[in-house]
Amino acid sequence: MVIHHPSNALEAVNKRKEIPCSVYLAGGTEDLRLGGQGENKELIDINGLVPSEIRKREDGMVEIGALATLEDIIESELIPECVKKGARLCASFEKRNSATVGGNIGARRDDSYLGALFSVLDVVMHTITPHGEEDKKVSSYFPTNCRRLILYFLLDPKKEAFIRRFGNTSSSHATLIAAECEGRYALSVKGSKMVFGTSPEIYKDVEYVSDITGSAEYKKYLASIVFEGEK
Ligand SMILES: Cc1cc2nc3c(=O)[nH]c(=O)nc-3n(C[C@H](O)[C@H](O)[C@H](O)COP(=O)(O)OP(=O)(O)OC[C@H]3O[C@@H](n4cnc5c(N)ncnc54)[C@H](O)[C@@H]3O)c2cc1C
Predict the structure, then answer these.
(1) Atom of ligand 1 at shortest distance to CA of 67?
(2) How many domains, in total, are found in the chain?
(3) Is residue 195, in this structure, part of any structural domain at all?
């Protein structure tokens, strides 16, 4: 296993660009698991290079450092209940204590705890690319393979959202995670790309597949009714 230890965030993002077969190493819960995204890849350690604090800014927005853990989210007084609920979808305390928010969004998994939620909450990420620092919405980053490094997230703490998960058990992979806020809808369905839009009809945009979490027909049924009578 090769692990690089760059000395700053710009060096890290340049390394990631230079080495096609590479991933960032944050908490490592995804990268270091068998079959995870880091398997047979070179790891670029970002610990110490990216913020981990959660703080309120003068404009009222909450800044969440990309290295803040899911447990930090749950314990912070600055974080709205819906985001705590998203972090609690990770049922293991041990994993929540290492798993970072940046790693959860950066992994862009089809059963992401926070991907659908941060998309409907219109969360903006402050990132660094080889060309400089840039803001980008989670909703437009999530469907891509972009290699930028997330530094922190900007969240409006006054927003509340609907979030609902279906799965066989709290610890198994989610069959479906749905989120809605102010007319923005998102669906993460296991085996499919996350869909995002302005109507519950987005369930028609999903290419459903049958797998261990459920049949394609079952997933489509859940997706078609999940926003009925929400909240
Ligand atoms: C048994 C098990 C079950 C799991 N189940 C789920 C699940 O159901 N849903 C789910 O979402 N996750 C799941 N995970 C994966 C993981 O725990 C979380 O996604 C976690 O939040 C990843 O954070 P991390 O800091 O550990 O990321 P790491 O493992 O360090 O990195 C994961 C990915 O994120 C990228 N990344 C990390 N930080 C950044 C950054 N700042 N900017 C850009 N990219 C970045 C890396 O390039 C890498 O590809 C599971 C893990 C295990 C071990």
Answers:
(1) 41
(2) 1
(3) yes
Give domain status of residue 46, yes or no.
no
**Residue 217 belongs to what domain range?**
162-225
Q: How far is the CA of 171 from the centre of ligand 1 (A)?
A: 15
Kindly state the helix (H) or strand (E) to which residue 42 belongs, with its residue range.
strand 42-45
In a domain, 214, yes or no: yes
Structure tokens at 153: 């997230």
Helix (H) or strand (E) holding 168: none
Q: What is residue 1's predicted lDDT score, i.e. its pLDDT?
A: 84
Q: Does the predicted model carry a pTM greater than 0.70?
A: yes
Q: Whose CA is nearest to atom 19 of ligand 1?
A: 104
Structure tokens at 109: 């998994």
Summarised one tens digit per residue, pLDDT across range 55-85 is 999 999 999 999 999 999 999 999 999 999 9
> How far is the centre of ligand 1, averaged over its atoms, from the C-alpha of 147 (Å)?
15
The reply to whether 199 falls in a domain is yes
